[in-house]
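I'll show one example:
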Amino acid sequence: MGLKHVGKTVIQEKHLATCHCGVVQMELTLPDGIVDPRRCDCSICRRKGAIVASVPLSGIRIFEGQDKLTLYQFNTMTAKHYFCSICGIYTHHQRRSQPDLYGYNVGCLVGVNPFEIQEITLYDGVNHPADRSVEEQDEPEEDPKKSDLVVDSGAFKKMFNDHGAIMYIVDLSTFTIIDANQAALDFYGFDRQTMLTKRIPDLNTTPEAEIRAEIKKAVAENRTYYVFKHRLSDGTIRDVEIYANPISIQGKDYAFSVVHDITEHKKVEDERNRLIDDLQTSLNEIKTLRGIIPICSYCKKVRDDQGFWNQVDVYIREHSEADFSHSLCPECVHEHYSDIFKKE
């Protein structure tokens, strides 16, 4: 028998559950209440942090938002984890160890505050025999010094090696590359043996102290990406954007890194910024008079916004970046300085 009450909320036999934004709505059949509420310390549960309970596959009916659910699978690609594609909330998953059951997010039950559940079982997802038997364990048995430590299991190893994205795995304590896929070897131009002798500072044009400072800054900003310049085997410098996520293996910290070559994109962006700067400079140098300017038909004075009449040159100077150098045209010389003109 499961929990029939959580705080003041009665668990209904047919209980509504939703994601955070409410787009995904499910009806859970819970005749015995919340059965087997638990936390798990496997790699994905440690990150999502939900309290999970169990129902048979027939115990969940999604009556709204089925098309908004996103499926996530990893490693053996057996378990099916579902998340709302809009708000990102984990709603439920089909278990790998018991595929006839769904695990569901207790926090999605309407009216239920999972923190009011007094006793929660901590499930050993790292060392569970069923997990270890299918090689989806969080901490493999292999020697952590081996380069293929993380990607030794079938489905993930194939994905890692065959994926078109540039990927490598780094020992965070030494910055040594312990594994790299074929795309990484092709991009950097090293054979596998040479690549696995490299440290991140060997590829990065930035000094090691500054690399570590940038990583520390990214952690403080809750940011998982960095932008650096990397040097290829032929000396070519490329702008790269690196997305790095921490993974823990037998208590040791590693980073799983995916590299994007943004060199061409950055060239286009730099050119765009240069053009914007040039345009802004030009705009700063140009002040255009617009609209209807009231000018006297006889004396040619111009009325300003305050109602005063000014000489044309004064008005233009005050309303634009133009200035005047005064001189005399031949007609004015004859009209105003005729005596001087006659003497010449």
